Amino acid sequence: MHCWKTINLKKQYGFDRLFMISALFGVAVFMASYIGLAIVYATPLSDQYFLFFIVSLLAIYPLHKILHFLPLIGCHKSLKFIIRKQMKVCPAFSLHVNEPVPKIRFLLSLGTPFLVLNTAIISLSIAMPEFSHYFAMLLAYHCALCLTDIIYLRNLARSPKYALIEETDTGFEILIPPVVS
């Protein structure tokens, strides 16, 4: 196999720039979702269950990482779970795959948290419009978390169909299997 392309977002964009873009994306999602829900539903907002909102806010990040893991369940022997501190305070969880994974499975792994959690949050905001401000904040936070996944999805979608994706210290490598004649 040979490497078709290496993708390293931290090297390409830098942590500070990714953080800023992610924060701006989250603010934009909050504004759009909150205004949209306020226009559609004229119900008064409730500030009950604020503690439940805080717990939900704290639970989104671990749920996001677990949902990344689900499509890779068949590769569980080659997964490595790492916890490190980001900005000296916040724990950051990482899943590293030690062997190449088929492109479609990796794309599914990147897209699952976005599709599942955002669908759940939007459905709950429609079902309980009196808490739409909470759900708008949860949606914005999760979309900000998903920004790097979306950028990786965009880059990997352009790769060859039968490529394998391998995670290394330098980023994600898109590997092309040799042509069998």
Q: N-to-C SSE series?
A: EHHHEEEHHEE
Count of DSSP-assigned helices: 5
Q: Please count the beta strands (DSSP E, at least 2 residues each).
A: 6
Strand portion, in percent? Answer: 15-25%
How far apart are the termini?
A: 15 Å
Structural class: alpha+beta
Q: What Rg is obtained from the alpha carbons, in whole angstroms?
A: 19 Å
Q: What count of domains describes the coordinates?
A: 1
Shape type = elongated
The poorly predicted ranges are: none
Helix content: 55-70%
Mean pLDDT: 87
Largest sheet strand order: 1-6-5-4
Please summarize the sheet with the most strands.
4 strands, antiparallel
Protein name: DUF3267 domain-containing protein
Keywords: Membrane, Transmembrane, Transmembrane helix
Organism: Planococcus kocurii
Describe the structure.
It is a single chain. The protein has helices at 9-12, 15-40, 50-69, 103-127, 132-157; strands spanning 2-7, 79-86, 90-97, 101-102, 164-168, 171-176. The mean pLDDT is 87. By secondary structure, the chain is of the alpha+beta class. The two termini are 15 Å apart. The strands form two sheets. Strands 1-6-5-4 form a four-stranded antiparallel sheet. A hairpin with a 2-residue loop joins strand 5 and strand 6 (171-176). The chain has one domain (2-176). The chain is built from five helices and six strands. This is DUF3267 domain-containing protein. The chain crosses the membrane at residues 21-43, 49-75, 106-128, 134-153. It holds the Pfam family DUF3267. InterPro entries: DUF3267.
